[in-house]
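Structure ticket #2291
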Amino acid sequence: MSAEILDGRAIARSMRQEIADDVAQWVDKEGQPPTLAIVQMGADPASDRYVRAIERGFKGVGMLVRRVALAADATQERMAEALEQLGMDDDVQGVIVQLPLPLHIKESVLHKLSPVKDVDGIHPLNAGLLLQRSKAALVPATPLGAMELLRRYNIDVEGKNAVLVGRSRIVGLPMSLLLLHRHATVTVCHTRTRDLAKITRTADILAVAVGRPAMITREMVRSGTVVIDFGINLMNGEMVGDVDKGVAEVASYITPVPGGAGPMTNIMLMRNTLQAAQRQRELRDKA
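Resolution: structure written out below.
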């Protein structure tokens, strides 16, 4: 048995055209495209590459990206001021902050994000709205992209046993809630989980986001499982996931690394930005 590939690149390509069409309609009505602001602290080659990829993607669908560069030693107050200014700027519809933050910056500064512009879904208000199954929630793009992959491949999650390995607030936890909202039975595993392999072998759907290359091996996955690998790791100059390549021999579906969850993250960030712009317009119309 060999797993069918959940091709994030192919789905992202088709979604890109859908989003481009929606952006064109937006521009016809509003006169200017939605704009995403990216706040960066300091210079980091990996971060710069990621931002350039976002810029190319957004440009390709007709949206704009504004970089807000802060010095690596900028203060907590300077970061808070930048976020507050972007929150009041009517020419900006989405805001993301490049993570992780420098050690001297407390994560509480992210509370200064405007919740309606928080297209990464990291503000406490959006986290709470997701918990309550509110359609007003802006959801982190990575798990949202994985759910879209499942939907477009007609993989039903209702009633299935879903196991998450990893409980981060931007991938594991929101993914668990999205699966619960689709009526899966969800187990969340983490660094203190005992006998991890025993639990992962119960999964109909296994999603892994731990940042450890090839942590999940073939022996930890039962035949027919749908596997979503969120991992991005460099090993011997090669990009690999958190799931060993041998798992593809037993899984029914699997996301490749690269080319699976990654392209879906960027495309959902575009969709979130357009969605945020639409909601801000609705709020202005009601005011």
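Closing remark: The two ends are 58 Å apart (CA to CA).
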